[in-house]
Amino acid sequence: MTAEYLRGALKLYFIMGSPNCTLPPEQVLEKAIRGGVTLFQFREKGKGARKGEEKKALGEKLKWICQKNGIPFLVNDDIALALELDADGVHVGQEDEPLASVREKLGDKIIGVSAYTLEEARQAANGGADYLGVGPIFPTKSKEDAKAAKGTTVIREIRQNGIRIPIVGIGGIGPGNAKSVIEAGADGVSVISAIAGAEDAEAAAALLKRELTL
Where do the annotations place 4-amino-2-methyl-5-(diphosphooxymethyl)pyrimidine binding (predicted)? Predict the structure, then answer.
């Protein structure tokens, strides 16, 4: 997994679980991929989230959809599930399992780490993260425990301090502000509600993809 490949895969990064959808998650993912999503993270959290075997069964279906469409399938912070599903990687937050321990379990699979500050970004990059999820960039309602939005300046600061690993911006990103995240130095944008909460996930993804490639 080269950094260059990952930069491309991060371009339009979709995060979703059943609590984020009004339609069946499988349908939403199929539509989002048709619209141009380049990577998917399974994040089954929040009110009504599936647990245990139900969560695993949904993960298997979503992984299969990603596989047949040739896009990476990541799991949010559940290392055991990622290994069970043979996911392409995981994304972990600052409060989740330490990066060194995750790397030991996952080997050369993709590991993304959330970063809110320059110092967190530096530690993750030095610790061997494959990419950084930086944010929240803009105010968001998708995560109940979200920190205050920092704007795109945090991405510029990370880049200006010599951190070169791939970056995806997260938090409140949608049509109209996605391009500014790329202009600040990110390789891609990650979205939840901009696609999962849209009436037409395919059209929503296509609109974002167009903005990112203009």
Answer: 41-45, 76, 114, 143
Q: Which two tokens stand for residue 106?
A: 């996952």
Whether pTM > 0.85 for this model: the answer is yes
Does 20 show up as a binding residue in the annotation? no
Question: Is 70 exceeded by the pLDDT of residue 146?
Answer: no
Domain count, the chain: 1
Q: Residue 119, annotated ligand binder?
A: no
pLDDT-derived band at 214 (thresholds 50, 70, 90) equals confident
CATH number for 93: 3.20.20.70
CB 32 within 8 Å of CB 195 = yes
Selected residue with higher pLDDT from 33 and 144:
33
Q: Which of 11, 18, 114, 190 is catalytic?
A: 114
C-alpha 124: how far from its chain's center?
A: 16
User: Is 43 a residue of the active site?
Assistant: yes
